[in-house]
Structures are given as structure tokens and as C-alpha cells.
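Fig. S4 source data, part A: sequence.
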Amino acid sequence: MLAALGVGPVAKAPTRPVMAGVLRRRQLEHTACTTGQVAELLDRDPSRIRQRLDGPRRSLLGFHRQSGQREWLLPGFQFELGIHDQPGWAALLQALPQADETSPTALITWLTSPVAHLGGRSRAQALADGVDPQVLVAEAATFGMPA
């Protein structure tokens, strides 16, 4: 009835790219796990989880909370897919920049978005499905390059 009068739903204001990035980062922080949560999940000491997050031999994906707290946050997909203990995951992470050295949202999007050459799977899912990690490590050189 309202449509017949030319009245429709209120159009959503377009989101500016910067604002969209801020919102995506907040969502990422809100859904990520803390080192304490991951330590409990893996039955490890939190200090062991922090050791796996930093440096050239890192084997878990994490980033620091943006609010000034130096708290590590870990995206849950690496645990949901069961790749957190795979040597190929560590090799892939070590071939990529650390999340704090780039945009964590861009890095996580690169890892979790479906790509055609992997049959519509994400790189993380392909690794979980047994794709040769060296294929993904070679692709890591393209991270941050325009498609």
C-alpha cells in the first residue's frame, strides 16, 4: 500500500570506505579469541600461545587490539578449520606479513575469501582440505598486490 503511494523503506546511507574499514575492524576484534580463551581451548599456557604469535617462526595468526591495549586477539577460523597445528599453516603465516604490520582485516580477508583457482574455497579452507601448502606459500608473495 505504501509502495503505491511512492513511499518505500528508508534508504540506508552509503557507508564511506574508511568507516566500513573501521566497522570491519571492530567486528573482527569482537569475534576474535583472546590468548586466554585459546590457551583454554588448546589446553596450553597463555604464554605458549603468545610465543606462537610473534616473530619469524610464528605459527598462529593474531593481531593486537586497536584500542591501545596490547592484548593479542586470534581469529577463530584457524581453530574451527583445524589448521592451527599444521606445519603448512605456520609456513603460510611466515610467508605473509604479520597482521600488525599490515591491515589485519585485509590479511584475514585474503586468507578466508573464496578464490576461483582453488575451486571457490578460501586459502584457509584449501589448506584444511589438504592442498599443498607450498602452493599457498607461493601465493603469499602476491598479498597486497592489486588483482
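Fig. S4 source data, part B ends here. Strands lie at 33-34, 63-64, 72-74.
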